[in-house]
Write a structure and sequence with these properties.
The protein is an all-alpha fold. 66% of the residues lie in helices and 0% in strands.
């Protein structure tokens, strides 16, 4: 049975029933029983009202006080997960976001790892600048980035020319074992470009950390889609070490609604019901009328 706080005064007005009659005859009856009794006595207002409850959003909101989150929760708490999930696409994104506070930080990070890479990167950049991301990125991730087949060699060589010659000379020496006189950056970069694939990879991974970060930042800034090459774990480890749950939830505002909904569907029914109580009362009533008439019938009969 769904027991709601009903607007008795509105009900009396709609059915043209005196308060005395309500107390003497209907005090122990449900809304459905009262309407049925009045209709049987020829009260046309009752007949019309019964029809409106299943068709008129505003009437439903008014009679059953659906603007009250407590009343919405009472109804939602009787529903299955499948039914609850139907309400989520109707909610404001800001209200959806509040639901993420019900997850632990570990769970939030696990869900971030499952996001499409572009959306994960967008979320990360709500918390960190490009410079911070590269500074916090582990060395092995930088190596993987610079040697990825998704990063064009020609582009790497172009950006290498901005590295001071002495560091380029060190890269060449680490591969050839021979001392290199620091000279013109263009000539040194051309030498690196002539290395075989293994030597080229070794040269890049042997760079000094600061220069490696500079090169990676320069490449990724020019082609932001390359930030997707870093592993999800690298990003979530960075977030775990540097940010608190409120920072994470705030950043998740940029995640696409369908992904937010997919995440929230992992909440247990009682917590998901709490989240949905923030839905607009008219949207809630409209969904009851058009998608869950059996739930609405139970409310009216209670």
């Amino acid at each position: 049975m769904i027991v709601l706080d009903t607007d008795l005064n509105t009900l009396l007005s709609k059915l043209n029933i005196s308060r005395t009659k309500m107390v003497e005859m209907y005090s122990m009856m449900t809304v459905d029983e009262i309407v049925e009794a009045e209709a049987a006595q020829g009260n046309q207002a009752a007949v019309q009202f019964a029809a409106e409850l299943f068709t008129n959003v505003d009437k439903l909101v008014e009679i059953f006080k659906l603007a009250d989150p407590n009343n919405k929760y009472i109804i939602l708490s009787t529903m299955t997960a499948d039914k609850l999930q139907k309400f989520l696409p109707l909610m404001e994104e800001e209200d959806l976001l509040q639901g993420f506070y019900f997850f632990t930080e570990d769970k939030l990070l696990a869900m971030l790892r499952e996001l499409p890479p572009e959306q994960l990167v967008n979320t990360v950049f709500q918390m960190f600048s490009e410079e911070e991301v590269i500074q916090l990125m582990p060395n092995d991730e930088l190596d993987k980035f610079l040697t990825s087949t998704d990063v064009e060699k020609e582009n790497v060589l172009k950006h290498l020319k901005s590295i001071p010659p002495e560091y380029l000379a060190q890269m060449i020496q680490s591969v050839t074992g021979q001392e290199v006189q620091s000279g013109d950056s263009i000539d040194l970069v051309n030498q690196i470009g002539e290395f075989n694939p293994l030597q080229y990879k070794d040269a890049l991974t042997s760079m000094q950390p600061t220069q490696k970060q500079q090169l990676t930042l320069s490449l990724a800034h020019e082609h932001p889609e390359l930030y997707q090459l870093f592993s999800p774990e690298a990003y979530t480890n960075m977030i775990h070490a540097q940010k608190q749950k409120p920072d994470i939830v705030k950043a998740m505002a940029v995640i696409e609604p369908e992904e937010k909904i997919k995440m929230l569907e992992e909440l247990p029914n009682d917590l998901l019901s709490v989240v949905i109580t923030q839905i607009d009362a008219r949207d809630f009533a409209d969904t009851l009328i058009n998608r869950f008439p059996e739930v609405l019938a139970e409310i009216i009969a209670s």
